[in-house]
Design a protein that fits this description.
The chain has about 400 residues and is α/β, with parallel strands linked by helices. It is built from 12 helices and 14 strands. The two termini are about 40 Å apart.
């Protein structure tokens, strides 16, 4: 297919996304108004899969043994690549959709619907993967382990943000629940018989803070107290805190984990208490595919958007899409919808604003056009896949 034909097909894709504008806005705003936290996204799954089912996609829910995960597939002509559009839809406790997952999930669905409508003879398979619990639980990690990405040639989503970027990185991370066990006693009449789990936990916070100067500058450690006792006149028998540990890579994260957990256990032992640590799944660092990011950037620019450079240092979080990037060609670009930062009330408001809805449509268009590039341009697909293979070979040598 020549460049003129590709431009014409992309124009049809843009028109197809616009034709779904009302439906997509309705889905995104409905999910926003009904936030569901990790692994509880039952309604969001229904709202996202309904138009896919109606359009004839083969939809399977409960994949990877996760009740709120789904896989929706449409295949044009056989023999082409399998492109996964990733849908996120979990909310943050208290803040709702302060990371814009109502937009992420809906834009993936919009891109898939537009491709099917505009390119019925497309050589390839378009798969929408509904990935729950990105904020807390690592749905994509579980789906990776269950083989949902084994046949995927490229995977992508588009995240709302305060800047439009295509190559922003992310830190490896793990969440850890710190449990402290002491002995209950009356705090006034018999304090000598008690062991304070609260003092053990406070010691642990101090010990962790004391480690910070000995970590690399990109290490991030942050925690909250989730249980601090029942009453001030009762020496707490059990206390609990939840931390997130982050580092540039999984290998560097391992060093952080070892130091922090050793400090926590000694801090508890110092007052005669005991500490136990319950870990969540490890989110890998992000492996951005530059060839794929280049395709996405050109499509954003074709929409009239200016693509910014990512921060040279700092300014990044973590995402379970990092684990997907260990298995296949992956990108996690961003599209600007506001000046506010994520995980704030202002960003929650932005993800239901008019600019948020404009960003939704722009994201769907860029996703659809980039998926089309991979299916229609053999050289583009070859570049993307060869880059991933080279990266994997280099990684395996290091291991």
């Amino acid at each position: 297919m020549n460049s003129q034909q590709m431009r014409e097909m992309k124009q049809r894709i843009l028109e197809a996304v616009d034709a779904h504008d009302e439906t997509l806005r309705s889905i995104a705003l409905t999910i926003h108004a009904n936030p569901e936290i990790a692994f509880q996204e039952v309604k969001a799954v229904q709202w996202l899969t309904a138009p896919l089912k109606e359009a004839g996609f083969r939809v399977e829910t409960g994949v990877a043994d996760l009740p709120t995960a789904f896989r929706a597939e449409w295949e044009g002509q056989p023999g082409g690549p399998t492109i996964a559009l990733l849908a996120e839809y979990d909310a943050l406790p208290g803040l709702g959709h302060a990371c814009g997952h109502n937009i992420i999930g809906t834009s993936a669905v919009g891109a898939a619907l537009a491709l099917q409508q505009a390119c019925p003879e497309l050589k390839g398979r378009i798969v929408v993967l509904g990935t729950p619990a990105e904020e807390d639980g690592g749905g994509k990690i579980i789906m990776c382990e269950k083989g949902l990405f084994d046949d995927v040639d490229a995977a992508m989503l588009c995240h709302p943000h305060k800047k439009t970027m295509v190559l922003r990185g992310a830190l490896a991370c793990v969440d850890a629940t710190l449990q402290f066990f002491g002995k209950e006693a009356h705090a006034s009449s018999a304090p000598e018989t008690g062991i304070s789990a609260l003092d053990a936990m406070i010691n642990a916070f101090v010990a962790i803070n004391g480690l910070r100067q000995f970590f690399k500058e990109d290490v991030r450690i942050h925690g909250i107290i989730t249980k601090g006792g029942e009453a001030p006149n009762i020496i707490p028998e059990y206390c609990e805190a939840k931390f997130i540990l982050r580092a540039a890579t999984v290998a560097e994260l391992t060093v952080v984990q070892e130091k922090v957990y050793t400090a926590v256990k000694h801090a508890a032992a110092a007052v005669g208490a005991r500490a136990e640590i319950q870990e969540g799944l490890v989110y890998a660092e992000r492996n951005n595919n530059h060839a794929l990011a280049g395709l996405f950037a050109r499509n954003l620019e074709a929409l009239g958007l200016e693509v910014s450079e990512p921060p040279k240092k700092g300014g990044i979080g973590s995402s379970d899409i990092g684990n997907v990037g260990q298995l296949t060609s992956t990108i996690h670009p961003y599209i600007q919808i506001t000046e506010a930062g994520t995980h704030t009330p202002a960003f929650t408001e932005a993800t239901a604003s008019e600019q948020g809805m404009v960003g939704l449509i722009q994201a769907a268009k860029a996703l659809a056009m980039t998926a089309y590039d991979l299916c229609a341009d053999a050289n583009a697909l070859k570049d993307v896949r060869e880059e991933f293979i080279r990266w994997k070979q280099n990684r395996d040598k290091e291991v």
